Amino acid sequence: MTVKSKPNRFLVVKFGSLGDIVECLPSVAQLRKAFPEAEIDWLIERKNKGAVELSGVDVDLVPIDTYQWRNSPGIGSAKEIAEFVWALSTDGYDCTIDFQGLLKSAFFAYLSGAPVRIGWERDFLRESVSRFFYTDVVTPKRIHIIDQQMELLRPLGIDPDWYIEVPLKARDGARRSVVQKLAGLTDYVIITPGGNGTTKCWASERYGELAARLMNDGFPVVVTWGPDEDVLVKKVKQKAPEIREIPTSLEELVALCEGARLMVGGDTGPMHFAAAVGTPIVAIFGPTSSDRNGPFRREDIVVERRLACRPCYERDRCPLEHWECMKEITVEQVYEACRKRLLIADASPSLQAQ
Length: 354
Prior knowledge:
- The chain contains 14 helices and twelve strands.
- It is α/β, with parallel strands linked by helices and 354 residues long.
- The strands form two sheets. Strands 3-2-1-4-5-6 form a six-stranded parallel sheet, covered by helices on one side. The chain has a six-stranded parallel sheet with strand order 9-8-7-10-11-12, sandwiched between helices.
């Protein structure tokens, strides 16, 4: 089905993690290009809005904190939710696009009151009941989530540009801060041992062994991490005492990626940030699908084990209690991937400088 009238007010719904937000940027950028005069609001988790701001995509952010709503029940939260729902339903949206595909996001799309609400067909939804809240549905033909999200634009008459890129760019203040933290270090490799879910994390000790090998080859290596991941860094340093620790804010992470020769990490926000910056990547995938969520440049390398039980998308435990998808990935395999990706980068023009 194609939307017949031209919408003037859009609501984009995408919560998720920081990586999810980065993967949605190409779709929203194309929506803006197709409707340059329209008002486009983005309903987003407050903690993730910085990723959109660093992209420069022209939208108005509507930040909310669903985590606080879920975990701090009370009269105050109930009043805040009621006021928000009333404001959302009276904002006069013509079209809402649910790029998340969850019951929560679909329900917010419904609450927007938009006469046109676009989402995926039932078989492509993580929570199939979400289909009830859409007026127009799309059956995606592509595998990668970036492409599947762009296919949601088809009912609006938008032919997806599969090659569009929306870079993240740090501002001068963040760049100066990172330069100060690096204290003269340049052309470094970034290691990010953390991840949103323990099953997606390769062993920190192996990251340390990898870092030691790369440093022995003459490559400077830095490690960065997210909230509550300090213990992972300590384990890395046990194997690579000389590795440099670089704590960053969200914007400083972008600045750190801008100066890196390589990023090594799992299916995490930092990996997707590096992809948006143009940093060469070696990604280590376990329970999630690299075909769906991996780095989108073909020059980048994914190290993974093709097992029958993958992908399971479990965050906290292996359903089969063996975790072979991560345990069977060796330091040697990742090291060889790093050397190969560095050679490719040396032979290709830098995307980071563009």
